[in-house]
Write a structure and sequence with these properties.
Blueprint (H helix, E strand, L loop, with lengths): L7 E5 L4 H13 L2 E6 L7 E2 L2 E4 L2 H8 L4 E4 L6 H10 L4 E4 L6 H13 L3 E3 L5 E4 L3 E4 L14 E6 L2 H13 L4 E6 L10 H9 L4 E9 L4 H9 L6 E6 L22 H10 L3 E3 L5 H9 L2
Parallel strand pairs: 1-2, 1-5, 2-4, 5-6, 6-7, 10-11, 10-12, 12-13, 13-14
Antiparallel strand pairs: 3-4, 8-9, 8-11
Helix pairs in contact: 3-4, 5-9, 6-7
């Protein structure tokens, strides 16, 4: 839906340890990585991928890119994203956590103004199983959708995404698109926006939502789901989290509302089946799909 085997990918920060490692994994999955960028390292190669000093130089030499994935330190994310946008790369995946809040706010504004799409910060990326992967999710967890379609997955948590997607695959349930929106207070693409894309995709038969405490993203997504005739299975992490204590993600803070119990009750009241444990999600999804 968002990416496929023809998607032309740019890797910013390709020469660092994480950039090299995940470039190799993405190439192994079949991702079409056309070029990488690291200032001062132009002329080198990483896993056979040519490296350039700037995004503009990469575009000039290799042509336009559909999406960029950034493996750059948090303080440099804003400049790196802006550089990509200025060179015409309108989609970006930001893996780094601890990006300054005001930088996140500014980036969301810029991407929306220019009609782009930003995933993250602090996200594992996205995958179109059997076609392409732009991110850090493990290669082996996915299963392509069958001829009758599959489910879409949208998640605020990286590691829970891996666990639940792998369980779906073992249960024989393929995925159309897996989207990790990130766990920060400010996300370039919200859970609701990502869910809308999946709900409107003709190949996607249902939705799996992986949420957590804090914010109103899951409640807003539940309201959106009522407009569509597709089943939704969900899991909400943080049942035992104490109030007023941030749990891992910057967005996972229970303040006024936002507790796991509140979210679970809201989702169930709006027709969404909520699992008590991550391991239940695959069986619930199979039941909802009549498998």
């Amino acid at each position: 839906m968002l990416i496929d085997e023809n998607t032309r990918v740019l890797v910013q920060g390709i020469t660092g340890h994480q950039g090299r490692s995940h470039t190799r994994a993405m190439l192994d999955y079949g991702t079409r990585i056309v070029a990488g960028v690291t200032p001062g390292r132009g002329g080198e190669t990483v896993e056979g991928v040519p490296v350039y000093d700037t995004v503009a130089r990469a575009v000039e030499d290799r042509g336009p890119f559909d999406i960029s994935i950034l493996f750059v330190p948090a303080p440099h994310v804003r400049d790196a994203c802006t550089e990509a946008l200025d060179a015409g790369v309108l989609r970006a995946v930001v893996v780094a956590e601890h990006v300054p809040l005001h930088d996140e706010l500014r980036l969301v504004h810029i991407f929306r103004r220019r009609g782009g799409l930003l995933l993250g910060p602090n996200c594992p990326g996205l995958a179109s199983p059997g076609k392409s992967k732009v991110g850090i999710m493990p290669n082996h967890i996915f299963r392509p959708p069958g001829s009758s379609g599959g489910v879409g997955v949208v998640s605020r948590s990286g590691t829970l995404t891996y666990e639940i997607v792998y369980a779906l695959s073992l249960r024989g349930i393929g995925q159309t698109t897996v989207i990790g929106v990130g766990g920060d207070r400010v996300c370039g693409t919200t859970m609701t926006e990502a869910a809308r894309l999946l709900m409107e995709d003709g190949e996607t038969r249902g939705l799996v939502m992986v949420g957590e405490i804090g914010g109103r993203a899951e409640e807003e997504t539940a309201l959106l789901a009522e407009r569509y005739d597709k089943p939704v299975a969900a899991y909400i992490a943080g049942r035992t989290a104490p109030p007023e204590k941030r749990m891992g993600h910057a967005g996972a803070l229970i303040g006024e509302g936002g507790s796991a119990g509140d979210k679970i009750s809201f989702l169930r009241d709006h027709g969404i089946t909520v699992a008590s444990r991550p391991g239940e999600v695959a069986d619930i999804t199979a039941s909802l799909l009549g498998l």
